[in-house]
Design a protein that fits this description.
Polyamine Oxidase, Chain A, domain 2, globular, 2 domains, alpha/beta, about 35% helix, FAD/NAD(P)-binding domain, 16 helices
Length: about 450
C-alpha cells in the first residue's frame, strides 16, 4: 500500500508531490505530458508560453518552491499597462491620460473618466480590504478576498457602457476567463488592482519558461509518475483510499493511506464518489472559463513598439490581451538582440467563439490582428502555435464566497488542491498543494508514531 497517491500532475499536484517526495507516493496524470496548464518551450533565448506565466514574489509559497527546487526566476520587466484601441497603441504615461489620447468622441471620454474615477476609488478600497493582516492565516485572508463585493456582477457594478467605454474597461477583466456579467464585482475590481500594480500581485517569471519548474519536479520523481493514467473513481475508506484507473486499455486499482486530488473542481466532483455531500455540491458549483492561447516566435532585427511592455490589453480583436514574453529577455539586456516572443490570450466568450475553430485558422487570425496593431508584425513571424484549455481558469462569481469554507474544510483521507481554492492562480495552486501535502504528511506521521513500540 502506498503512503499517498496524487491525482493530477499539474502545478498543484506536483507541488504536493514535491512536499511528499520522501514518502512512498505515486502520481497519476491522465495526459501524456506533465504540467497541466503550465506549458512552455524554449527557442534559444526566448520562451514560447501557452499557460501560466506569472508567479508570486516575496513571502509566497511560490518563492519557497522555487528555492527548494533550485528554479531561477526574475521580476517581470516592463509595464502591464499597454493598450491597443481604435487603431492606436499606447504604453507610456499615466493610464488616466489614455482616454484623451485614444481617438474617440467627447461623450466616450466623459464616460470612461466617470467610470475610471469610480473604479480607481474602489481599487484602493479593495487593496485596503484584502491586505494581509498580522496573525491571520492564508485561508482567512482568502475568505476576505472572496467576500469583497461578492453580491453582484462586475457588469452591474460598471453599469451601462458605450462601445468605447466597454473596449477600454472589459479586456482587462476578461483575463479572468469570465465575462463581466458572470464575474463578481470584487473580482473585476481586483483585476484592475493587479494591472495598476497596487497591492500584492503576480510579478515574476521563471527563467527558461514555466515548464522549467514542473519538468524539474517531475524529473526528480519520474519513476513515481504514471502518464496516461485516467482515473475513474476515488473511494475514501476509514483507513485507506482506493483509486481505480485505466492505463493502456487495462484497468488498475491502487490503494494508499492518503490521497491528494489535484484535478479541476468538476473532475474532482466526478471522481470523488463518496466525498461528503456538502463538499461534492460545492465542487459542482465552481465555474471555469476556457482559454485559447497562441504563441508567436518572431525574428525582428530591431526595436518594436511594444518593447518595454509586458501586458497589452486589446479592444475589438479575437484576443483580450497580448503578453510580450520576449520582454523577459530584452528587459535584462543592455543591447537588444534580434527576435522575440508574443503570447495571445482569448479567455471567456472570446475563447468560446474560437473553441471549434481549427488551430491553424486561429493562428492566422492572431497574426493578422497583431499586424493590424503593429504594422509589419506579420513579416517577422518565424513560428506560431495555438493551444486550447477546457478548464482555463476558475473565476469568482457572485455567491462564490459562501462555498469557500466547505471547499477548504479537510476530509478524513482525501485532501484537495488546485487553483479553484483561491484567487492567485499559480500561487493558489502551489499553496493548496503544500497544504494538502502537509495534511497528508500529518496523518501519515501520526500513523507511524502509533506503530512505534512504547519506549518504556
Amino acid at each position: 500500500m502506498k503512503d499517498a497517491v496524487i491525482i493530477g500532475g499539474g502545478l498543484a499536484g506536483l507541488s504536493a508531490a514535491w512536499r511528499l517526495r520522501h514518502w512512498d507516493i505515486q502520481v497519476l496524470e491522465s495526459d501524456q505530458r506533465i504540467g497541466g496548464r503550465i506549458m512552455s518551450e524554449t527557442r534559444g533565448p526566448y520562451t514560447m508560453n501557452w499557460g501560466g506565466h506569472m508567479f508570486a514574489g516575496g513571502g509566497s509559497s511560490t518563492v519557497e518552491l522555487l528555492a527548494e527546487t533550485g528554479t531561477a526566476s526574475v521580476k517581470i520587466p516592463g509595464s502591464l499597462q499597454g493598450m491597443a484601441m481604435n487603431g492606436k497603441y499606447l504604453s507610456t504615461g499615466p493610464v488616466q491620460t489614455y482616454p484623451f489620447r485614444f481617438p474617440m468622441p467627447l461623450s466616450s471620454r466623459a464616460s470612461i473618466l466617470k467610470t475610471g474615477a469610480k473604479l480607481g476609488k474602489d481599487v484602493l478600497r479593495y487593496t485596503q480590504a484584502v491586505r494581509a493582516r498580522a496573525g491571520e492565516t492564508g485561508e482567512q485572508r482568502q475568505q476576505r478576498i472572496y467576500d469583497f463585493e461578492n453580491d453582484r456582477t462586475f457588469a452591474d457594478y460598471l453599469g451601462p457602457l458605450n462601445k468605447d467605454a466597454a473596449g477600454f474597461f472589459l479586456p482587462p477583466a476578461l483575463r479572468s476567463a469570465a465575462d463581466p456579467d458572470q464575474l463578481s464585482a470584487g473580482a473585476g475590481i481586483g483585476y484592475f488592482s493587479l494591472i495598476w500594480n497596487i497591492g500584492q500581485g503576480l510579478g515574476r517569471a521563471i527563467l527558461g519558461g514555466a515548464s522549467t519548474l514542473t519538468e524539474g519536479i517531475a524529473q526528480s520523481m519520474r519513476d513515481r509518475i504514471d502518464l496516461g493514467a485516467v482515473v475513474n473513481e476515488v473511494v475514501q475508506n476509514k483507513d485507506h483510499v482506493v483509486v481505480r484507473y485505466t492505463k493502456d486499455g487495462a484497468e488498475h486499482e491502487l490503494k494508499a493511506r492518503t490521497a491528494v486530488m489535484a484535478t479541476p473542481a468538476p473532475i474532482t466532483h466526478r471522481l470523488g464518489v463518496n466525498l461528503p455531500d456538502e463538499l461534492r455540491d460545492a465542487l459542482a458549483q465552481v465555474k471555469y472559463g476556457v482559454h485559447v492561447a497562441g504563441c508567436i516566435l518572431t525574428d525582428e532585427q530591431g526595436p518594436m513598439p511594444y518593447d518595454g511592455t509586458y501586458g497589452i490589453a486589446v479592444a475589438g480583436k479575437s484576443f483580450a490581451v497580448a503578453l510580450n514574453q520576449g520582454n523577459i529577455t530584452h528587459g535584462r539586456e543592455t543591447v537588444r538582440r534580434p527576435g522575440g516572443s508574443m503570447m495571445t490570450f482569448s479567455p471567456a466568450s472570446l475563447g468560446s467563439k474560437l473553441w471549434d475553430v481549427p488551430k491553424e485558422d486561429i493562428v492566422k487570425q492572431y497574426i493578422r490582428e497583431l499586424d493590424e496593431i503593429f504594422p509589419g508584425f506579420e513579416g517577422t513571424v518565424k513560428e506560431a502555435r495555438v493551444e486550447k484549455f477546457e478548464f482555463g481558469s476558475p473565476y469568482c462569481f457572485p455567491g462564490r464566497a459562501k462555498l469557500q469554507p466547505t471547499l477548504t474544510r479537510p476530509t478524513e483521507r482525501v485532501f484537495l488542491a488546485g487553483d479553484y481554492l483561491g484567487t492567485l492562480y499559480t500561487e493558489t495552486s502551489i499553496t493548496s498543494g503544500f497544504t494538502a501535502a502537509q495534511r497528508a504528511a500529518s496523518l501519515l506521521s501520526t500513523r507511524r508514531q502509533s506503530l512505534t513500540p512504547d519506549a518504556a
